[in-house]
Amino acid sequence: MAHTHSHDHSGHDHGSAGHVHGSTDKKRVLVAACLTAGFMVAEALGGLFTGSLALLADAGHMLADAIALGLAWYAFHLAGRPATGQLTYGFGRVKTLVAYTNGIAIFVIALWIVYEAWRRLQMPAPVLGGPMLAVAILGLLVNVASFLVLHGGDRESLNMRGAILHVLGDLLGSAAAIVAALVILATGWTPIDPILSVLVSLLILSTAWSLMRAAAHVLLEGVPPTLDRDLIASDLAVTVKGVREVHHMHIWSIDGSSNMATLHACLDEGVDAHQAVSTIKKRLASEHGISHATVEPEFDQCADEGDGHDHGHDAAPHHDHHH
């Protein structure tokens, strides 16, 4: 049960399908980035011309998205590069760093909009409803277009998920601007504009937060959300012959999709270490979706014992070693 996600490409072979996806994803993200960036300029000008904060909020959102999509494209571009002597894991994490940085940038934009809206509620400014409606509707169409472009991509990649989330948030932003324009045209009540701009910025904040959380988890070497370290450790001890226990186990992900593990395997006397290690690696790959594992076999005593390491808490099912 390596990937228990219900995706349209269930059980695909990571090698080939990954590459096919990679190249189309890269093109998709670039198209969406250009669409978003182009219209973001139009929307910002529209917002200044009509005096609408909701349009400016949506433009701010689109700016963050254009940057996000541009960086996502760059991340795909880098991820294809082979590892180097200095960067032994390759460039896969660039995507994660990008997602994190991008999250911080969006936070700032959202806070600015909230501040601006608060000022406007105290001193309402005139807003041109007609042109505002036209710009907002165009914005919605552009967002629908980029959503359709991205939606055909791989939904498992953190990078693509981030990109799609952005565009979805944008759809809602444009919808809010349309609603504000309609209310202003119908009733002339301008405070609706800053009120809806605050809603848009709250939406931006939640998007940023979820992106940053997923990225931070990867950067902190967290166990991938689909796996359970202690379960996997006890599973190895039970299923692999000659393994007495597994401790010092770490599982982490490079980029949100490929997983790594290191562990110590305590073996019974007379067990063939090479055989046991290779069985453990095979089981990790086939059953748990961990493609790269480093296994340290031990007989009798753990090599890390006696040098002052308190590893009781970091061990999985932990028994006293037989000395």
TrEMBL record:
It is a multi-pass membrane protein. GO terms for cellular component: plasma membrane. Residues 1-22, 300-323 are annotated as: Disordered. It comes from Rhizobium loti. This is Zinc transporter ZitB. Residues 306-323 have a biased composition (Basic and acidic residues). Belongs to the cation diffusion facilitator (CDF) transporter (TC 2.A.4) family. SLC30A subfamily. PANTHER family: CATION EFFLUX PROTEIN/ ZINC TRANSPORTER, RE54080P-RELATED. The keyword Hydrolase does not apply.
